[in-house]
Amino acid sequence: xxxxxxxxxxxxxxxxxxxxxxxxxxxxxxxxxxxxxxxxxxxxxxxxxxxxxxxxxxxxxxxxxxxxxxxxxxxxxxxxxxxxxxxxxxxxxxxxxxxxxxxxxxxxxxxxxxxxxxxxxxxxxxxxxxxxxxxxxxxxxxxxxxxxxxxxxxxxxxxxxxxxxxxxxxxxxxxxxxxxxxxxxxxxxxxxxxxxxxxxxxxxxxxxxxxxxxxxxxxxxxxxxxxxxxxxxxxxxxxxxxxxxxxxxxxxxxxxxxxxxxxxxxxxxxxxxxxxxxxxxxxxxxxxxxxxxxxxxxxxxxxxxxxxxxxxxxxxxxxxxxxxxxxxxxxxxxxxxxxxxxxxxxxxxxxxxxxxxxxx
Length: 360
Ligand code: NAD
Fold this sequence. Notes:
The chain is an alpha/beta fold.
């Protein structure tokens, strides 16, 4: 039996997750996978009900599971809370406690949605890249950190720190992913300024010796940011640390123009992963059946592929999504300006994907 912990979270999280679970259970039945989905709380929903953004019991349950499917956390109701007890703390805790060190964010332009990008069509054509971001180290977790005051002057500090093992394991994930794709890896750094980046250069080069079939390029983070908008089609897999990856993965997502379409995976060693849409809790549309569930549904495809080792199920989900879009079905966020088309809601979009998957 494969146990999946479902953490719907806040805002549109429960709406998109409900459709994703329907798709997961349907495909599992088609593929003969035994599945048990257990729902728990995270984020603001957990704060309101239980006084904490993530209970230790939920972390323990996740440890005894194959994968976690998450919706989104946060919203205006909890914005005024202190950083240490906010909904986002639940996300940081689950990443750290479960050792989710590798964040995979694919950004590809689906042909039926190519016009949604703010970039010119000839620049957008052929975007199909994957950002592999180190997620549990670097400046977001490094010590010392804090704020203080000296002689009436306020100061604040954070520490960017990596050891060679942390760099080597994320580099290996990235090289493996490149092998599954187009055998090209761009390592993004700031080695002209940062000692940390110089260590990354050395270690990535050492790991590269085991992957002579993958072409490796080192790229400064500032020039990478420029190239992502000028010539994004040149990238296959990008690997980088937590801070640069946070920024570049959002930039890569935005150039596809479809936030409601983008899935992600955060992996630990041994195939365990947490899967979630890239978008947030979208409080502006929550509760109105307007959310696009496709990013959550495509996260299910990543879950099937990686944690349930079912590439056929993953391909079925991706094909179903492409065929639903090809048939012209759109949630409101996918409509282009001035486009006249019937709009479907979150549940109806889930219905269309299920229909495209065929009988269980
Ligand atoms: P957001 O992604 O929630 O929304 C940005 C815009 O995109 C909104 O107009 C929203 O309506 C739209 N949108 C997002 N997802 C959509 C979908 N699936 N279908 C249709 N439209 C969609 O980002 P935000 O507004 O900056 O943040 C809202 C809240 O979400 C904040 O509390 C933030 O902290 C949180 N957040 C959580 C996560 C996460 O849980 N991983 C990620 C980002 C933001």
